[in-house]
Design brief:
TIM Barrel
């Protein structure tokens, strides 16, 4: 079994090959993907994913407001985040964080939103899903000040340095790698993959974006997490099975409190 630990299921484009989201999920299941973390980019997106999870036992949800927005909305209200994050399908808070690459002009909004998400995650005792790009020191400083290190979280779609990964791991974070590690120009990132302990590593697609080789230029799909896991195995010189088993156990430890997937009730019952 393998888990796609970060995908945006409500943003997938349906085409002639996939007439429904169900067919996309079924294709991934046929490839051995046994669970999906659907990640919200705003409250409406989060609500759509909760609805999907209510009819799909293997879909879990993280809710939040992404740091990159075409038009800056009002800052997320903590009470609104708490309400939606209290649904039984929701296992994490986010995607939240800092992005100084695409949106440096909204730094103040991003920082306040990030802190609000971290405080909500702490209040609900849930891990946080963090987006960070070209904001290493700011991200780490905010995490040190506000994250619940007993619960921790994940730095998703990681593209930063080993020093940042090591600092995050010290705060009880996992490091999640996407299809970027298969790209020709990602040699430095593959060196980071080598250094991250397998028991602190997750794999993801970030679908519908960042399709791995050999699917570059096409829409990314949750089933393509298989190629990400295989690349991790190749980089570390271990078996695909070991990567699949360990990253699945890591996912359960972070998002399910160590509970096995088979122990979860199906489907999630709405509040």
């Amino acid at each position: 079994m393998l888990v796609d630990s970060h995908c945006h299921l409500d943003h997938l484009n349906l085409d002639d090959n996939h007439s429904s989201l169900s067919s996309i999920l079924d294709d991934a299941r046929q490839r051995g993907v046994g669970a999906f973390l659907g990640v919200g980019v705003d409250l409406d997106s989060s609500a759509r994913l909760i609805e999907l999870a209510e009819s799909n036992r293997d879909v879990l949800v993280s809710v939040g407001v992404h740091p990159l927005q075409e038009t800056l909305p009002a800052l997320p209200e903590p009470d609104d985040l708490i309400q939606i994050a209290s649904h039984p399908a929701v296992v994490a808070v986010g995607e939240t964080g800092l992005d100084n690459y695409y949106s440096p002009d909204s730094a103040a909004w991003q920082e306040e939103s990030f802190i609000r998400h971290l405080k909500v995650a702490d209040k609900l005792n849930k891990p946080v899903v963090v987006h960070t790009r070209q904001a290493q020191q700011q991200t780490l400083a905010i995490l040190r000040a506000h994250v619940n290190q007993d619960v921790g979280g994940v730095l998703h779609c990681f593209t930063e340095t080993w020093a940042m990964a090591e600092a995050a791991i010290a705060m009880n974070f996992y490091i999640s790698f996407s299809g970027i590690i298969t790209f020709r120009n990602a040699a430095a990132l593959r060196e980071v993959v080598k250094k991250v302990p397998l028991d602190k590593l997750l794999v993801e697609t970030d679908a519908p974006w960042l399709a791995p080789v050999p699917y570059r230029g096409k829409q990314n799909l949750p089933g393509h997490v298989v190629e990400v896991a295989q690349m991790v195995a190749d980089i570390k010189g271990i078996s695909y099975q070991q990567v699949a088993e360990t990253t699945t156990a890591n996912f359960a430890a972070l998002f399910l409190g160590g509970q096995s997937f088979s122990a979860r009730s199906s489907p999630v019952v709405p509040l």
